Amino acid sequence: MTDPTTGRLRVPGATLHYEVRGRGPLLLLIPGGTGGAASFDAVADDLAAEHTVATYDPRGLSRSPLDDPEAEQRVAEHADDAFRLLELLSPDEPARAFGASSGAIAALHLLTTRPERLVRVVAHEPPVVEVLPDAADHRALLARVRETLHARGLMPAMTEFAAGLAGEGGSRRPDPDPASHTDSAAPSGAGPALPPHAAARAERTMADLPYFLGRIVPRFMAYPPDLHRLAALSDRLVLAVGQDSPGELPHRSAAALAERLGTGLRHFPGGHTGLTTHPAAFGAHLRTALTGALTPAEAPHTP
């Protein structure tokens, strides 16, 4: 793995840690969950063969501290952070962007508000539950998670959250993931010692969980995407889902959004966390999605 060039960017209310690799047109990778920039380590070098690849720790996570640690979070603010990175790293040319999970929601908002800065956005399983016909049930889930977090603590709330995400797709482990909502690098009891880099990443992931569950999840999963604006920009948007995640809430949300917009779906390897579980194949699919058109087989799917 190539060591990236790192930098820090002051934005309103926070300081962002960002990393840059490669040369060529800019590709901004927007992480989801608690993963931060490290969630793209397995794919960034390959993508950097054709792009200047930039990623970062979103505000309040890992190495991107908030000025006010108790500040409420908003999707628009996170999308504006991504815009400021585009302005810094590609001031004269529009860029491509990829977002995973909650990062995909930030990418959708970025596209609707700053379309002149983007030529293509790939959004992998954004949990935009407000587009679902049973959105009220998922608002109730968020309320239960919030109540459990306050009454019983972090891990019971993560278990409640994971069960809600799994939906009809089966059980989901409540471990924290770097590519989305949970992290396979997180410690889970006895086992072989992690390498120092992975251990530090797992420690950051666990430390970020209360912030993610308490302040990112409630705001991001209550976000209503601008359907009219996205429909007008659909020629720049690729919605993607995992091959192994049908029935799970983020997959259903992405499929419902595609149905509402009248667009197709890309099917990426693995499930919601395919970036972690199938990095080589996931990266290959991402390279195609960044430049290729949807095929007839990728028709809209009804959730």
TrEMBL record:
Q: Where is this region: Disordered?
A: 165-198
> Which InterPro entries did the record assign?
AB_hydrolase, AB_hydrolase_1, AB_hydrolase_fold
Q: Which domain of life is it from?
A: Bacteria
Biased composition, class Basic and acidic residues, residue ranges = 170-180
Say yes or no: keyword Glycoprotein present.
no
Query: Would you indicate the residue range of the signal peptide?
Result: none
State where composition is biased (Low complexity): 184-198
User: Under the GO molecular function aspect, what terms does this record hold?
Assistant: hydrolase activity
This chain's protein is named: Alpha/beta hydrolase
Specify the species: Streptomyces lichenis
